[in-house]
């Protein structure tokens, strides 16, 4: 059953050579974002699309390509985000191959584990074949396939709109079709399904994500116009012609590439920055409130005002850096900032500040 939404770090891929006979560089291409909570049914929908549509579908499951260890790294910029950006770069690398009809070569700058997992995914689905044995093969030859439309299904939570916007920008860069399928499933069902997965996600993570997730909003964001909600309930819910209608609509009306339009580019930047700024502001306000409640048990009441002022000053400084695009050097490797980056940095600075403050008061 479908429910319509409200109406109204890496270098660029290097040049590749070696055209493949029989591959048309005018083949219609589309990017489809599958978003929703863990265990909502995104992978089931992707499998249904791969086997039940008139198009070729390439299923890119972030969970299968980015290893679990990437989510455990205690760095300022979460390692998982860097891996996500690496994967998006490899997808762009493959798009260039599809557009030019060339061979797929390993980028000079790459994270080998993610690259090899990405290549293995393409091989398993029959989109490439290696020209040499072993994981170190650097050239992969495209297998001849039909010249009909191809959809790349990006299967991840994509709980912030800024995550999805990066995919939209990629579609715009290469004038591709772009659409979003938000797989909606009751939280209780997601938690139950998750318990039976081979690699279950921590329930606390799902609960937190459920509070933060941003459903596509076509009324607010023009770039989300090709979006629908798919209810993952009932038998055979994955096979619904409304999804195919949306995919066809997106192919028929690909995103237009921006041609040196400084005003539109600046509008894009401001829109993304405003969204991240709002998210960060809300999150930091909540952290300060919780910190003050905890500090009451350890600090005299007369000192609470001073601590609150220091935390507020820290928040304002970080948000001002974000507003003017002058974040710290350790964040410069990232393609774009997200609210969680600011929250992570604030948490670290806040913890040191509170510890020093309380020690000084003692």
TrEMBL record:
SUPFAM superfamilies linked: P-loop containing nucleoside triphosphate hydrolases
Signal peptide as annotated in the record: none
Domain of life: Eukaryota
Coiled-coil intervals, chain numbering: none
A Pfam family recorded for this sequence: KTI12
Protein's UniProt keywords contain Transferase: yes
Gene Ontology MF terms in the entry: ATP binding; kinase activity; tRNA binding
Gene3D superfamilies in alphabetical order: P-loop containing nucleotide triphosphate hydrolases
Keywords assigned by UniProt, alphabetized: ATP-binding, Kinase, Nucleotide-binding, Transferase
PANTHER family: L-SERYL-TRNA(SEC) KINASE (PTHR20873)
Protein name, as recorded: L-seryl-tRNA(Sec) kinase
Organism: Geotrypetes seraphini
Encoding gene (name): PSTK
